[in-house]
């Protein structure tokens, strides 16, 4: 039976949170009317693998939140073990070429929207965040992770060359030599290691506490002029955004060329089979 305590807590929560009108299917957007902070929840079971549709919905959600002048954006996952498994490998293995083009373009759009977002952004990393999952988290300004998670940019272990925006994200949060070594080794870090090197800012014992810490980070800007804040952020990130724009077409073509290569297809097939075999054994 529900206690009166939990019922009143639910009623309180219901009165301050509203779902955004155009919330889409694979991302749920909830705005807290008291704080003005919007939470975007990745909701593509089982592991939030980033396919064309999830990337599309995520892009729409970020833009909608930015246009609605929320006070900040928190990114999290509906899965209690996985924040995001990164790009959906099925979109790259024996791909439909038009769809692969769309996948990469949408990944670029999401990076641009999140990395260049005018609002304060934070990630409540409530599960593993390999590859594209880590990319999303490190596009934000602040990260809180849960215990026993794994996070990192392991693209190189799949034979994929990390795109330039992976480099920008790592250079933005890690010392240069740590960033370079992590990328060339395709390192996946434990929660403790991620905290120690500064890949994440804090650790929380539950998703709720992680969300709370993210809200507290965003609240530190309550007295700051929002325009001055966003222009300062863009001054820091502007050179990366400009370089990205000048290389985005080349990066798209190299990605398509890369995944078209027979050896690459063989490697991706083996990797995917390895992931599936793990569950059969
Ligand atoms: C050209 C440069 C590109 C750079 C940009 C980004 C690239 C990428 O993101 S590449 C993707 C790299 N991702 C990974 O290497 C992650 C692989 N997955 C895992 O490590 C784990 O699945 C996990 C830690 C994310 C979750 O572990 P667990 O909770 O134990 O879940 P399972 O491993 O049992 O997975 C469930 C189910 O999902 C399939 N799967 C996992 N990851 C992916 C994926 N990225 N794409 C597609 N499918 C994936 C896995 O095979 C299982 O399938 P079934 O056995 O059929 O249930």
Walk me through what this model shows:
With 281 residues, this protein is an alpha/beta fold. The protein has one domain: 2-enoyl-CoA Hydratase, Chain A, domain 1, CATH 3.90.226.10. The protein contains ten helices and ten strands. It has helices spanning 4-16, 52-67, 97-115, 132-139, 164-173, 176-185, 191-197, 207-219, 226-260, 262-280, and strands at 17-19, 27-32, 37-42, 72-77, 121-125, 129-130, 142-145, 150-152, 189-190, 202-203. The strands form two sheets. A seven-stranded mixed beta sheet has the order 1-2-3-4-5-7-10, with helices on both faces. A three-stranded mixed beta sheet has the order 6-8-9. The protein is globular, with a radius of gyration of 19 Å. The protein starts with a helix and ends with a helix. The chain binds ligand LGGBLMCM. Ligand LGGBLMCM binds next to helix 10.
Give a quick rundown of the structure.
With 281 residues, the chain is an alpha/beta fold.
